[in-house]
Specification:
This protein is of the alpha/beta class. It has a single domain, classed as TIM Barrel, CATH 3.20.20. The protein contains 14 helices and eleven strands. Strand 7, helix 8 and strand 8 form a beta-alpha-beta unit. The longest helix is centred in the middle third of the chain and has 21 residues. The relative contact order is 0.14.
Length: about 300
């Protein structure tokens, strides 16, 4: 069974203060090469989104781990609706055995439209996550009796208080997405001191506000249609005017840091001062993918945080 704080002297040291968050498309051509490049820049972790719905997605994660030497690779997230607990426990055990201390299993309840595409019903997400964690515990306990390796750490994609409490009690921490330092401070208050808190932070390395907001709003529009994110942003004080369409300037500026490298670093520092242990940078490009140049520019600036 995975317990909070397990392996803290290993993977938590490796993960560092700043990592990189990408969609699965970033790994499709050359997972090992991309991971090696991220590691060479000095980032501690590579978080891979897209719900990681099956064996092929985990094959990409394995190749990323094989191509790098110390980089931690994490799912940000793996959808619990796409896997049975036993099958997932077996797959992550294989990764952990091959790359000890370098894989983190991020789990999430995803969103109703994505779950419906899997042919599943999205209902009672907190209860579903609790059952899934119990299923993982049972599978891992069985492996332990067979002499299997220790399971990798888990973190939950937690936004609201009850999911954060579950992340505190049944996992090694939380990986919130589409949040701000204000949420980070509240999440740390719920989690307490020990669990990992690793928020994602989107950014646009562009110091002309109007150009930057065009990129940021294009990115935000699809997320603002999803009830889970809307509910969390309403809890943080945003109203219907803020959440309409591509979002108000006030909302965009809170969720997507844009400006000079120094301004981006200041936002990362704000998360860390609010209680984050690790910040996952997602640099947005004009074409909708990852801005590799931004990662290169920021790498030496965040190295000392």
């Amino acid at each position: 069974m995975s317990s909070p704080g397990a392996g803290a002297d290993g993977w938590r040291q490796c993960i560092g203060r700043v990592g990189v968050w990408v969609g699965p498309g970033a790994l499709e051509q050359d997972p090992g090469g991309f991971a090696a490049w991220v590691e060479h820049l000095g980032y501690g972790a590579l978080w891979v989104g897209g719900s990681n719905p099956g064996p092929k997605s985990f094959d990409l994660l394995d190749r990323a781990l094989c191509g790098s030497g110390r980089l931690v690779v994490a799912t940000g997230i793996t959808s619990i609706w796409a896997w049975e607990p036993l099958a997932l426990a077996r797959r992550v055990a294989t990764l952990e055995a091959a790359h000890p201390g370098r894989f983190v299993l991020g789990l999430g309840v995803s969103h109703a439209p994505a779950v419906q595409q899997l042919g599943r019903r999205y209902e009672r997400p907190l209860e579903a996550m609790t059952r899934f964690l119990t299923g993982l515990d049972d599978a891992e306990m069985e492996r332990g009796t067979d002499g299997g390796s220790s399971p990798p750490p888990r973190v939950l994609a937690a936004l609201g208080r009850r999911m954060l409490e579950l992340a505190r009690d049944r996992a090694e921490g939380a990986h919130p997405y589409l949040t701000s330092p204000v949420h980070t401070e509240e999440a740390r208050r719920v989690l307490g001191e020990s669990p990992l808190l690793a928020p994602e932070q989107a950014l646009v390395l562009e110091d002309e506000p109007n150009r930057a907001r065009v990129i940021a709003k294009t990115y935000l529009e699809r997320y603002l249609r999803l009830p889970n994110y809307r509910a969390n942003l309403e809890r943080l004080g945003y109203d219907e005017e803020d959440l309409a369409g591509q979002g108000s300037d006030r909302l965009v500026d809170a969720l997507v840091i844009h400006g000079t490298p120094g301004e981006v670093v200041a936002r990362v520092r704000a998360h860390l001062e609010a209680g984050a242990d690790h910040v996952c940078l997602q640099p947005l490009s004009q074409k909708g993918g990852i801005d590799a140049g931004a990662l290169e520019v920021l790498a030496p600036l965040v190295a000392g945080l």
